[in-house]
Amino acid sequence: MIDIRTTRGDDTVQLDVAGQLSFATVSELHAALRAEIDRTVEAPIPRLRIVLGEISSFDLAGIQLLYALCRESRRGDASPSEGGANRHPGPAVDVVAGACFDRLEKMLRFAGLAPIPCVRR
Amino acid sequence: MKPHHDPRDTFREEARELLTVLEQSLLGLEDDPHDQELIDAVFRSLHTIKGSGDMFGFDRLVACAHTVESVFVRVRDGSLAVDAELVSLGLRAKDHIATLLDGVDDGTVGNDAAVSLVGAELDAACRRYLPAHEGPTSAVPDRPGSAGAGAPEPAPGVMPDSANAAPQRTWRVLFRPNRDLFRNGTNPLLLIDELSQLGTVLTLGFSDGIPALSELDPEGCYVSWELLVTTAADENAIRDVFIFVEGEADITVTLIDTVDDADLSYKRLGEILLERGDVTPDALSSAVNERSFLGQTLIEKGYVSGERVRAALQEQRYVRSLRETRREADGDSVIRVKTKRLDELVNLVGEFVSMHANLNFLAAQKQDQDFVAVGEQMERLIRGLRDLSIELHMVPVEILFSGFRRLVRDLSSELGKEVVLRIEGAETELDKNVIDLLKDPLLHIIRNSIDHGIETPEARARAGKPVAGEVKLSAGYAGSHVVIRVRDDGAGLDVGRIRGKAVAAGLLPEDRDYSEDEIVQCIFAAGFSTAETTTSVSGRGVGMNVVQRNVEQLGGSIAVKTWAGAGSEIVVRIPLTLAIVDGLLATVDRNYYLINLSYIVECLDLSAVHREPGRDFINFRGGIVPFVDLRAFFRLPATDAPDRQLVIVSVDGRSMGLVVDAIHDTYQSVIKSLGRVYEKLEGISGAIMLGNGTPALVLDVDRLVRISRKDVNR
Fold this sequence. Notes:
- By secondary structure, chain A is an alpha/beta fold.
- Helix content of chain A is 38%, strand content 30%.
- Chain A is globular and about 40 Å long.
- Residues 76-86 of chain A have low confidence and may be disordered.
- By secondary structure, chain B is an alpha+beta fold.
- Chain B has 23 helices and 21 strands.
- In chain B, 43% of the residues lie in helices and 20% in strands.
């Protein structure tokens, strides 16, 4: 249903995602993403790249995950945290939609939702 | 007491317009048999005529429309192709319906037998296009609601009356799903799609409820929507869309716009945010007190997300746009007014203009500054009233031009020629009265072009031309005039032959040389014809003379150009309106003359203009321009007054000077006809009455320029 391949570089961790990005699979990707972000606490990296070019279909649950991912990226940039202590600056998140960019845009337009900030073609 | 109005007259007027559309669409189909829009237009015209005719008891008209419509049902569903024969059948049916419309059918006109015969022939011809088992089962279609087998489907784009009955309203639907919506297997996008079946939907989605990844329940639903639905459906129909998710979402339906809402301003941003529950009253009032942009303040203070503010602004724009469109549509709504009533309005406005001139004259004479001030204030209003009354009279020449398509089709067929009519500038507007009076002259000109101008297909092939000839009918503005051109690509006028006939008829003295232009103008002489034989179409030598007279009676002019082997062109120049003229008032020997402002190029002091003694020409802007002393032209005593004026006028790029004693103010007035006694008075096209009751003659500048150019050529 969903295939996640992780490649670790010096300054970027890249997740190539293939298959469905839908309600049925979104928990799996969510878990994988959380794991990567948690890992950056131990071994900080500047960039987390998600490549969606091989995604065959997606639904609103999948789209929500992308919004949440972008929010995580922004949250990571924010410091100091609410508690006053410096929060670890998480990686900048970069989502490359590739071939599915147009379908993603079309769905967002239909749902009347704004473009997802960290997603690019 | 208001005059009795027969609703059948309204039906007749509307049906005539539909018949015009029907004819144009059928002729269009001849050029492009697959044009679906034209097929639909044919269908719609017949369907509407049939439906309305049925209401007023025009049974045989309805039967005819129904039969032909049945044929076009087959065209529309692709089981029958349009060809020339079918177009001819449609045109014959249109003619028959027009006859029935004119009174035979409701018993107000006699001669029923001949009409019945045509109807029977048409019916038989239509049945040949229909399968034996299908056919129009009942001549008069079923009444609405009975859905009989023979009744055709409503035309595409034509909504059943019941669907049009309810007015469009706009609802705000706030759709806030619970967290479990996805888990229960509901796809909210399908609900939005279903909602859009009811009407127009503006979808505004909110993602501001989606948390960061670490706090996200990936299977939970965090998105919510504001859906603006413009529909004729009621609240229950909207709620029915969400009936299966009632327990899984918070759904609020609010009516936000109806056809009765005329206030363009709609609600303020704060009101919308408050209504939707996006901000609390306290937050709103604290932001309002900031005296800054409300939306920006609310976002900056964290009271509301940017997308909520943007959505509220979008709602504002959407509803305002709806109301503006409605207001424009209300402004563009149409009522029918008889042309005669409009004529009366224009005449009254004309009289009003004259009275105003009189008021100005008296005010100036009495040197009463209060009166002068009132007169000046009135002038602006009167100009507006005058322009509006003239505008009401203006209609596109398309209504005139499109009628010639049928003429060209039928005439070319009768004469065994192939002729294509090309129309340009059909949107040009002219006074309705002028258009009515132009029909016959243009009819003559086009008939002549096809009969005499366009060659037979064989002759055209021999000359290396396309087998199909072309008649181009065009219109365009030229100052306060409209220029209509009828150009054909035929053989052109036979100048030698015209000269021979003109000399033989004594129109041109034999012992002189003539320019081609002088020779071809002979076609406008009474009784002139070069045709050896008289046909049903032309050759009696009365056409072009009558055409010229009709055009000149409209205050216009006509000219002809020709190119040997390449065709000829008739140019008709017509004033935009017959009603009111703006002119410059001049005096010649104490008589007043009005020169139409649209012709005037410049006014010069005659004494400052260099003239060769004994020559009636001057150098003006690098060209030779003839001039005429109006005292001499109207056989008035000569004068050597020092301060005379030279008014330079121009028509179609041809200029001339008019010498007058003095020029006064500009003046606008209704032109009065001079009557038959003065009909042949050269150089005068009408008269006006000045404010002090003195008459002034309106100069026929067009004619004066033509006369002067003739002298130049000699």
